[in-house]
Amino acid sequence: MATETDSSSDEIDWRSEASSVEVTRRERVSEFYRKRLYEPGLIAWSDMRTRIGLSILSVYILMAVAAVFGLWRNPSPNQAERLLAPFQTIQYPLGTTQSGVDLLALMIDSTPFILLMVLAGGVWATSLAVVVGTVSGYKGGAVDSAITSVSDFVMAIPGLPLVIVLAITLSPENPIFLGVVLTINYWAGLGRSIRSQVLSIRQESYVEASRTMGTSTPRIILKDILPNIMPYVMVNFVLAARYTIFASVGLYFIGVLPYTGQNWGVTLNNAYNQGGLFTFQALHWLLVPIVTIVGLTFALVLISQGMDRIFNPRVRTRLTGESETVTEENESATTESM
C-alpha cells in the first residue's frame, strides 16, 4: 500500500512539474511578444509621422499587390483617348499618355519592380555598412586598418561613372540585382560614419563592463552598440533607398538601363521626348511619375523619423513607462467600477 501511495504521489508531482513548464513557456512567448512586437509597435504608432508614412507606404504596397495579381488593367496603347487630363474621367483618374495609355495603370504596373529594387538597394548598402562600421570601430588595430583601407579605396571610385559602366556591361534586368548594382559602393561612406560613432560608444562604461565580464564580441555589438546607432542607421537606410530610386529613374531617363518593362524613369523619358515639358496638354504625363517618386520618398523619410522612438533608448523607456502607467490606471478604474 505504501508503495502504491508513493508511486501515485510521484505521478502527481510529475504532472504538476509538466504543467508548470508549459506555463513558463507560454509566459516566455507572451513576454517576447509584448517586449519585441507589441510595445515597439505601440510606441512607433504613437508618432504622427509613423502613421502618415505607413499610410502612404500602404498605398504603394496595395498598388504592387494589384499589379502582381492583375487587379487593375494592364497598360497598353490606344486603350483610351489620347492625352486625357487627370480627373477628367473616373475610368482614367490620372489621365493618359500621347499613345492613349492609362497613366494609373503605368504607375501600378511599375510599382512591384520599384519596391523590390529599393528594398534590395537599401538593405544591401545599409547592412554591409553596419557590419563593416561596427566591426572596424569595435575591434580596432589591424582589423580596423584593413577595413578602413578597403573602404577608402571604394570611396575613391566615382559612384555614378562606376554604376553607368556596370549598368552598360551587365544590363541588369532583375530588380534585386539592379538595386545592388546601383548601390555598389554606397556602403563605404556610411561604413566610415558608423565606425566613427562606434569608436565613441566603445568607450562607454556599460560597454567596458560587458567586456570585463567576458561577454563575446558579437553579443556586445548586438546588445550594447547597435541599439545606440540604429536611429542613424534607419535614417541612412532611407537615404540609400532614396538614392536607389533617384539613380534608377535617372539612368532609365537617360537610357543607360535596359527598357525591359514599364518603369517610372521610362515614363519620364517618354514624356520628355514627346513634349511633356513644353506642352501644357501633356504636362500631367510628366508630373504623375514625379509625384509618385516624391510620395514614396516622403513616406520612407516619415517612417524613419518615427522609428527613432523605438531605437532611442531614452525615448522608448519614457514612453513605455507612460503606457504602463496608463494601463495600470485603466485596470484600477475597471476594478473600482466592478
Shape, per Cα inertia axes? globular
Number of helices: 13
Which residues sit in consecutive blocks of at least 5 with pLDDT less than 50? Answer: 1-10, 12-22, 323-338
For the sheet with most strands, the description reads: none
DSSP E strands, number: 0
- Gyration radius, rounded: 27 Å
Tell me the series of helices and strands, N- to C-terminal: HHHHHHHHHHHHH
Mean pLDDT across the residues is: 82
What class would the helix/strand composition place it in? Answer: mainly alpha
Descriptive tags:
disordered N terminus; 338 residues; 13 helices; disordered C terminus; mainly alpha
SSE layout and pairing:
Blueprint: H1 2-45, H2 48-68, H3 103-139, H4 141-156, H5 159-170, H6 175-182, H7 187-201, H8 205-212, H9 217-254, H10 264-273, H11 283-306, H12 308-311, H13 313-337
Characterization of the model:
With 338 residues, the protein is mainly alpha-helical. It has helices at residues 2-45, 48-68, 103-139, 141-156, 159-170, 175-182, 187-201, 205-212, 217-254, 264-273, 283-306, 308-311, 313-337. Helix content is 78%, strand content 0%. The protein is globular, with a radius of gyration of 27 Å. Mean pLDDT is 82; it is low at 1-10, 12-22 and 323-338.
